[in-house]
Design goal:
Layout lengths: L1 H23 L5 H29 L4 H15 L2
Helix pairs in contact: 1-2, 2-3
C-alpha cells in the first residue's frame, strides 16, 4: 500500500513539473527560462528516484542507494 502512495505522489509531482517546464519554455525571459531548466532537472531526478525506488522494492534493496548516487552525480556535474 505504501508503494502505491509513493508512486502516486512521485508521478503527480513529475507531471506537474512537466507542465511547469512546458509553460516556462514559452517565455523569452531569462529568469523564466532558468525556471524551465530547473523543472527539467526535477523531472529527470524525480524519474530516476522513482524508477530506482520501485526497482529496489521489486528486486534488490541496493538499487535505491544507487539511484541516489546517480542523482548526486548528475547534480554534481550540473547536467
Amino acid at each position: 500500500m505504501k508503494e502505491k502512495w509513493m508512486i502516486g505522489i512521485m508521478v503527480t509531482a513529475t507531471v506537474v513539473k512537466v507542465a511547469l517546464l512546458t509553460y516556462c519554455r514559452r517565455f523569452k525571459n531569462g529568469i523564466v527560462r532558468a525556471y524551465a531548466q530547473d523543472h527539467f532537472f526535477d523531472v529527470i531526478t524525480n524519474s530516476i528516484g522513482l524508477a530506482t525506488a520501485v526497482l529496489a522494492i521489486k528486486f534488490y534493496w541496493w538499487l535505491d542507494p544507487v539511484g541516489a548516487i546517480l542523482v548526486y552525480v548528475l547534480t554534481f556535474l550540473n547536467i
